[in-house]
Amino acid sequence: MRAWGAFVAFAMAALVGAKEPPKSLMIGVKYRPEFCPFKSQDGDQVHVHYTGRLWEGKKFDSSYDRGEPLPLKLGAGAVIAGWEQGLRDMCIGEKRKLQIPPELGYGSMNLGDIIPPDSTLVFDVELVDINGQSAYVQPESHEDL
């Protein structure tokens, strides 16, 4: 019976630690508005709220801590490739989790104590606006006119 308990404990430990960082960009939609007439695309000026963490869970940056979203032009190469890809086709108000492998993040770049080389990054992102449009109000139907 003792051997069985040790086996179960070992198996559980293996399962808990089994989650490996992704080898490619992983995009998880956490929330998408029901009505979405505009989606982000290259060339759009967007504002994004985000929290960035290392794969192991350590937070390294957050726009929420500064109280304002990050402005950027999508497709201009101003942010890491994982963001360029992960922020496309988002609706205003949409929230995603981006799991970004080193090749689409900062690669082997040494960013000191903030982000070690070859780090897999995890970002929770929220698209606040597209080209200054922060909310879309569906026009009222005028079918009765």
From TrEMBL:
It comes from the Eukaryota. It catalyses: [protein]-peptidylproline (omega=180) = [protein]-peptidylproline (omega=0). InterPro entries: FKBP2/11, PPIase_dom_sf, PPIase_FKBP_dom. The keyword Transport does not apply. PROSITE patterns: FKBP_PPIASE. It comes from Malassezia globosa (strain ATCC MYA-4612 / CBS 7966). Pfam families: FKBP_C (PF00254). One of its GO terms (molecular function) is peptidyl-prolyl cis-trans isomerase activity. Residues 43-131 form the PPIase FKBP-type domain. Its EC number is 5.2.1.8. One of its GO terms (cellular component) is endoplasmic reticulum. This is peptidylprolyl isomerase. Keywords: Isomerase, Rotamase, Signal. Residues 1-18 form the signal peptide. It is an enzyme of class 5 (isomerase). The lineage of its organism: Eukaryota, Fungi, Dikarya, Basidiomycota, Ustilaginomycotina.
